């Protein structure tokens, strides 16, 4: 089913007699396997409103991310939360949609400084499990009118409602970016260097550590963005501040060039490598110990150490390996059998799980929207 | 503004309820004497007052849980209170309710510079969070103007903003985790020092829920390294339209100031008379502040001044030193005090799309003329969050009602142009009955469904946020069942 309007989508959900598999561009495929009739939002497309002077963009949920990025780029703006393109990592085809980005709360390296996808969401329209059309938030930057269902919808993977429209805060794209790279740091030293950088006033917008680097040598990357002179100044100050970790190489990139950060964002290191991929969110200083316990075949650290991507043999129960920890682990890549056998999302403590179940029952009382996907 | 009739049965059981509370808490943590409960009869929305049945001031999460368990079992409504600085009546009691204040829970529990987080008890004031880390070069970004007095608990309940959110975001963007107690006494942990939610973003849902989903007792907050420096520039313009266009051009040019403040002529005059900050006599004034090293500030202000010159400013003044910066901010920061000296006022908080600024200011002017009242406008222009101040005389019978009528019309105007009723103060009781102007029945139903999940008996701060007739069936279901 591929409705071309919100009304049609609402009627389809209201009339559904069994489970629906909600799909944007079909490029993510995260979660427990769901069997049912596919309901695609890909025909709900178009940028409904874009006001560069107000840093605001409203688009139908099925609008391709590329279309939005092109429109923003023409005005020197961008989606600051740097959403991951999952196709390479998950080996999928298709066109990523803005609704899919929001449903997954997909945020890249700049999350540590600019915030997550959810922090840039101003409003949503969605169809709940009864077919009712609901709007929440709006198109303005500051809004505390009623409960924030916008945040609830971000990262709910189509289990509470089918997004039909999203309003986003956008930001100016920088004139220049510079990447400082350090070679050969251990994970502990890398996390310490990244912490020192993020604790400085130089506005670091990316902090990643690639233990295998590009040629087998560990690489620690720090990104600075902004006006040309300012970037040059802060990059030098940061290099001086971090002298104890070695002398950083500085590579400069014009505003639109991603440099090494597209590979960090999309976890390119694991694209052609076998096994399951887990995404672990932790307190940065806990990262080295948790990574050791994961005993992974491949690791990528983002968010100053706060995000660990771990590649392990297919079927590995990573949570069992690392034991109890503060944070959460999500199985991002795994075959259907593994995703059916292991909880894809971090199991919640009983009182929190009761609230999540309660919300599901309220927003989708018949259990037709991606049932079981997040359970 | 109406509140539901209090439950006479509960009021009749006051002595019993108080004695049960006294068994749970230290003697000085339960206040039931009518003279003392009067201190809690209102918050900063002082036009509405009602002493509660009792006030409890627990000292720990366990004590909060014990009180909530009791009130849940006894069917007693609970009104959470931080520092009582809400401008929306978020902490306004009813006569049958217990006020649960977190004012005694003020400890810093953990400061962690490596991970850039601080964990505090939520009775701690906003400014003292920054106070705990500033010597080490860090700060907590959200800065509501009541920051000297307001508590983190209230900031979380209302998702408070401030003057610097264009760059740093509001409370929800700086809140990483909470310890929260739901109405049945269950203690929950949401989030932590790590980023983003494991499942549904319940933390994002709780922030801004106006104390209706649970009572937050501890919070993990993101702290940021202080910028090297900051400097404001002041610009005067011959019309609101031109100032509005200048704001839009600054944003489009790719500069992201930390603050863009806007004042119109009535506000400039009042502030100048009060604070003598040396503001120009003009129709509209902008204060734009940028951050960074000296050279970076020079560069950004250079761009901003170049844009401003294209709009023919009547004044363009950059602070040469800290003293001049202080004077530029002085008038703006004394705006509310200046108004208070001339008159009583109601402070509105609607947000509009920035592009609608000139049109909205013109319409506010004609609405004010229709009502025969004066409105001064001061607001955060970068994010469209307006604070029209409606001036009136509370001693003139009927004038408060007239001012409230004008306020409601201005907020409806904000909604009509694509904005919202409240940008940072919250709905509380003040804007409760206007919610149906912004949201359709299905939209409100979805929000109330969330409260049904967290607080099925609707005992926590029940008569707020949703229009009374819209929430009535839910609020009275418990009474009907008894």
Automatic annotation (TrEMBL), chain A:
SUPFAM superfamilies membership: FAD-binding/transporter-associated domain-like, FAD-linked oxidases, C-terminal domain
Keyword Oxidoreductase annotated: yes
Keywords (A to Z) from UniProt: FAD, Flavoprotein, Oxidoreductase
GO molecular function per UniProt: FAD binding; oxidoreductase activity
Source superkingdom: Bacteria
Record-listed E.C. numbers: 1.-.-.-
Enzyme type, top EC level: oxidoreductase
InterPro entries: FAD-bd_PCMH, FAD-bd_PCMH-like_sf, FAD-bd_PCMH_sub2, FAD-linked_Oxase-like_C, Oxid_FAD_bind_N
Pfam families: FAD_binding_4 (PF01565)
Domain called FAD-binding PCMH-type: residue spans: 1-173
Protein name in UniProt: Putative FAD-linked oxidoreductase
Organism: Roseivivax jejudonensis
Automatic annotation (TrEMBL), chain B:
This protein's UniProt keywords: FAD, Flavoprotein, Oxidoreductase
Residues spanning the membrane: none
Residue ranges of every copy of the FAD-binding PCMH-type domain listed in the record: 48-226
Listed GO MF terms: FAD binding; oxidoreductase activity
Domain of life assignment: Bacteria
A Pfam match: FAD-oxidase_C
Cofactors, names only: FAD
EC number, UniProt record: 1.-.-.-
PROSITE patterns per record: FAD_PCMH (PS51387)
Protein name, per record: Putative FAD-linked oxidoreductase
Organism: Roseivivax jejudonensis
């Amino acid at each position: 089913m591929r409705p071309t309007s919100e009304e049609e989508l609402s009627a389809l959900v209201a009339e559904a007699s069994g489970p629906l598999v909600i799909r944007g561009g079909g490029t993510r495929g995260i979660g427990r396997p769901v069997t049912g009739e596919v309901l695609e939002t890909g025909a709900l497309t178009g940028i409904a409103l874009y006001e560069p002077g107000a840093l605001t963009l409203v688009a139908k949920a099925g609008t391709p991310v590329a279309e939005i990025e092109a429109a923003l780029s023409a005005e020197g703006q961008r989606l600051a939360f740097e959403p991951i393109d999952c196709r390479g990592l998950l080996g999928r085809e298709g066109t990523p949609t803005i609704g899919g980005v929001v449903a997954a709360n997909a945020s890249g390296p700049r999350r540590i400084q600019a915030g997550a996808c959810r922090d840039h969401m101003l409003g949503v329209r969605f169809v709940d499990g009864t077919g009712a059309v609901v709007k929440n938030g709006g198109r303005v930057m500051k809004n505390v009118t009623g409960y924030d269902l916008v945040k609830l919808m971000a990262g709910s993977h189509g289990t509470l409602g089918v997004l039909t429209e999203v309003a986003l805060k956008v930001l100016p794209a920088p004139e220049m970016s510079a990447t400082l790279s350090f070679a050969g740091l251990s994970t502990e030293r890398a996390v310490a260097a990244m912490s020192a950088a993020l604790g400085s006033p130089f506005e670091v917008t990316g902090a990643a550590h690639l233990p295998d680097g590009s040629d087998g040598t560990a690489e620690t990357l720090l990104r600075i963005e902004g006006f040309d002179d300012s970037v040059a100044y802060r990059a030098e100050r940061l290099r001086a501040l971090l002298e104890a970790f070695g002398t950083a190489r500085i590579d400069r990139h014009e505003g639109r060039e991603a440099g090494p950060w597209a590979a960090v964002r999309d976890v390119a290191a694991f694209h052609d490598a076998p096994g399951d991929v887990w995404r672990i969110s932790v307190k940065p200083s806990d990262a080295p110990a948790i990574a050791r316990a994961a005993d992974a075949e491949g690791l990528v650290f983002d968010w100053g150490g706060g995000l660990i991507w771990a590649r392990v043999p297919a079927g590995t129960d990573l949570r069992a390996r690392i034991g109890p920890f503060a944070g959460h682990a999500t199985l991002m890549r795994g075959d259907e059998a593994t995703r059916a056998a292991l909880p894809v999302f971090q199991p919640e403590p009983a009182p929190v799980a009761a609230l999540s179940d309660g919300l599901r029952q309220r927003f989708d009382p018949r259990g037709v929207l991606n049932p079981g996907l997040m359970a | 503004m109406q509140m539901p009739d209090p439950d006479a049965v509960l009021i009749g059981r006051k002595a019993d309820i108080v004695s049960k509370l006294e068994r749970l808490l230290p003697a000085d943590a339960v206040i039931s004497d009518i003279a003392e409960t009067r201190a809690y009869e209102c918050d900063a929305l002082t036009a509405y007052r009602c002493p509660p049945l009792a006030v409890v001031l627990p000292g720990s999460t366990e004590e909060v849980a014990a009180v909530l368990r009791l009130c849940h079992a006894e069917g007693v409504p609970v009104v959470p209170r931080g520092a009582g600085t809400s401008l929306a009546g978020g902490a306004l009691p009813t006569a049958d309710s217990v006020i649960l204040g977190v004012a005694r829970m003020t400890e810093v529990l953990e400061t962690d510079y490596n991970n850039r987080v601080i964990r505090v008890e939520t009775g701690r004031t906003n400014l003292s969070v920054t106070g705990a880390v500033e010597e080490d070069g860090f700060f907590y970004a959200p800065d509501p103007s009541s920051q000297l007095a307001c508590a983190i608990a209230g900031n979380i309940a209302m998702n408070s903003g401030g003057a610097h959110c264009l760059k740093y975001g509001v409370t929800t963007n700086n809140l990483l985790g909470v310890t929260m107690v739901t109405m049945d006494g269950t203690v929950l942990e949401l989030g932590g020092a790590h980023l983003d939610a494991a499942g549904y973003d319940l933390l994002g849902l709780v922030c801004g829920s106006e104390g209706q989903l649970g009572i937050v007792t501890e919070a993990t907050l993101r702290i940021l390294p202080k910028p090297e420096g900051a400097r404001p520039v002041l610009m005067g313009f011959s019309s609101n339209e031109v100032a509005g266009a200048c704001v839009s051009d600054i944003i489009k040019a790719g500069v992201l100031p930390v603050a863009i403040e806007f004042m119109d002529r009535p506000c400039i005059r009042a502030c100048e008379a009060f604070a003598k900050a040396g503001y120009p006599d003009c129709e509209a004034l902008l204060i734009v502040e940028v951050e960074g090293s000296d050279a970076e500030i020079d560069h950004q202000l250079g761009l901003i001044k170049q844009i401003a010159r294209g709009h023919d400013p009547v004044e363009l003044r950059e602070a040469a030193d800290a003293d001049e910066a202080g004077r530029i901010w002085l008038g703006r920061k004394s705006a509310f005090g200046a108004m208070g000296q001339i008159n009583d006022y109601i402070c509105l908080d609607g947000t509009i799309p920035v592009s609608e600024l000139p049109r909205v200011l013109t319409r506010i002017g004609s609405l004010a003329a229709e009502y025969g009242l004066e409105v001064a406008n001061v607001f955060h222009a970068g994010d469209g969050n307006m604070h029209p101040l409606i001036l009136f005389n509370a001693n003139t019978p009927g004038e408060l009602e007239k001012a409230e009528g004008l306020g409601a019309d201005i907020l409806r105007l904000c909604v009509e142009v694509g904005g919202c009723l409240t940008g940072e103060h919250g709905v509380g009781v003040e804007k409760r009955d206007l919610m149906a102007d912004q949201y359709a029945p299905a939209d409100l139903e979805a929000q109330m469904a969330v409260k049904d999940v967290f607080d099925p008996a609707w005992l926590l701060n029940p008569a707020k946020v949703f229009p009374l007739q819209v929430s009535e069936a839910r609020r009275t279901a418990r009474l009907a069942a008894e």
